Amino acid sequence: MKKLSSTDYVICNKDKTEMFSFVDTNQVVIYGNKYEAILDLDEDELLVSCTDLPKHLQDVLIKQINK
């Protein structure tokens, strides 16, 4: 089983309730490069390490990466 890494990032809304995802597949975009993710940020969004997300969002990512 694959695990989340503290060096992988996602873009979330400010409340950390939703993560940025691909429109066509609905899969969450996981960035392995922090600076690449920063370039995609809007001012009303946060860059968050995958391991710093709330547990329920971490569970969504774990399910996605282990498909």
What does this structure look like?
This protein is an alpha+beta fold and 67 residues long. It has one domain (9-65). The protein is 27% helix and 15% strand. It is built from 2 helices and 2 strands, in the order E-H-E-H. Strands 1-2 form a two-stranded antiparallel ribbon. The longest helix is centred in the last third of the chain and has 11 residues, at 55-65. The radius of gyration is 11 Å and the shape is globular.
Task: State the end-to-end CA separation.
Answer: 10 Å
Q: What overall geometry do the principal axes of the alpha carbons give?
A: globular
Main sheet overview: 2 strands, antiparallel
Q: How many domains in all?
A: 1
Side by side, the strands of the main sheet go 1-2
Count of helical regions:
2
Which residue ranges are poorly predicted, with pLDDT under 50 across at least 5 consecutive positions? none
Helix/strand order: EHEH
Class from secondary-structure proportions? alpha+beta
Calculate the mean pLDDT score and round it: 95
Cα Rg: 11 Å
Strand content: 5-15%
The proportion of residues forming helix, as a percent range, comes to 25-40%
Strands, total number:
2
